[in-house]
Amino acid sequence: MTEFTHLDASGAARMVDVTAKTPTVRAATASAFVACAPATVAALRDGAVPKGDVLAVARIAGIAAAKKTPELLPLAHVIGVHGASVDLEIVDDGVAITATVRTADRTGVEMEALTSASVAALAVIDMVKGRDRGAHIAHVRLERKEGGRSGTWTRDA
Questions:
Q1: Is 126 in the active site?
Q2: I need a labelling partner for 38 at 20 to 30 A (CA). Which of 3, 54, 82, 86 fits?
Q3: Exactly one of 46, 92, 105, 126 is catalytic; which is it?
Q4: Structure pTM?
């Protein structure tokens, strides 16, 4: 990509005008990982985290975040989030998160998927921070996007 679409001719930030684009079905999947201490992983598996159901809270936080993305990112378009799912899995060294967002709109949902995964990860941290100060987000990244002018893209392993 040789031009920055969010800059005008003078270099000032602008919101891209998508008015003339035709709505199409689009989807994006992002992942995040929260690394936790072994004792925290055990508490998550046993349902023994004092604040309650960590995965349920993180799932709802991630779905809500997808719908709030334009409030957080000033150049993101307000689009219809027509589907959002957040899957969380407790693994040996933490919590793996996968967020998928779908729409039928004029622009993609990559930022909504990334925001969803990020906020779900933050919710996990918030729920376990009292017992695991070292818990941290190890990564947040786009895994796949579908639809739009550029078609399908999938992260290489």
A1: yes
A2: 86
A3: 126
A4: 0.92
